[in-house]
Write a structure and sequence with these properties.
This protein has about 400 residues and is mainly β. It contains 1 helix and 26 strands.
Amino acid sequence: MYTLYGDGVHDDAPAIQELLDSGISAVILPAPEKNYAIGSTLVIHSGQSLTLPETAVIRLLPGSNCFMLINERGGDHDISVSGGIWDFNNQQQHPHPKWVPADIQIKTPGFFPDDHPKAAVATNYPDRYRGRIMRFYGVTRLSIHDLTCKDPIQYAIEMGWTEYFTVENIRFDFNYGNPGPYNMDGVHIDGGCRFGHVRNIQGTCYDDVVAINADDGLSGPISDIEVDGIFGTDSLRGVRLLSTHSPVERISISNIFGTFYQNAVGLTFYYQNETTRGIMNHISLRNIFASNAPRLPIYGKSPDYQFALIDVDRQLDIGMLTIENVGRDEKLGDIETLLIREGAVIRKLSLAHISHENHTGKPVPVITNDGCIDTLYLLDVDGHGDTILSGSGSIRAIRDLG
């Protein structure tokens, strides 16, 4: 029987893990005297919930260099995590391994059993330190809600091959990382995920607030996901979609508020040396009220590399893309509201109720099309004196609906 200290000094991981391993369905931690401290990864099992008081701090002990929480193995189901301020304590961990290399082996979720139908996809979640707070792999019915993620090295919440999930009422409280604000995603959704709802996400991430990446850490199709409500300033992106060959389909993104130093929404291919093409279809972007943030030197990004508020990358084949109700009041970034890059192909693009107000003192088109659009539908697109449509790309047909 281990002692649950909650004094911020002694390691509480053995006591919390003992509760999780006991088989009880609801592990409810009381308010700590000071804060919980853990020196190893907590593992949650199928059919369990882990609940902390919403403002109780659970902090990774110095030099732990591990996930704070993972699920047991692919094939887990019915897992819930709520409450707490999950503090990775990044200044007291090994720095970002890309900038300060380290061969630190860590405990990772078990892959699917060999005879499981999805066993073949479980090949490339590394068992090396990456500086991430939580990871969930191969879970059916996952709920993460009403908690704060604080100061990771890289991602706060990561999942792959997970379905029927809800991530809601999440707050991000990030410093500038260790050694810098690199790859600091908020909610990172890898390949194989479907049937998910991400709602009410608040705070600043120095990479993507929400990343929906079919061919990044783990390849596989992503579909049927709703993102509703991103609030914050000075993140790199609000939402990123990524495909280099696996399809990303039926994604609804709405209610993005704030400032971003790259995009409010980026539809990306990213990997420059790939010869494949990304696949996206039925992508809906609605209610985006955003503008540019300063691209500060500390971010480690070139100030000369400009991105549009909504950016469609090269080597993407997109079936249907709908963008409606966008309000941009721009004082900083003299770049397009929508840019379709050379090499992108869109079968149907629908743009409605877009207000582009440019206070930069330089002419900025609302839309630059350097790609190939089969049919463009336009309704109530107002440039307030700027050119509505420019670029060297092709459009087979334009349907002016208003």
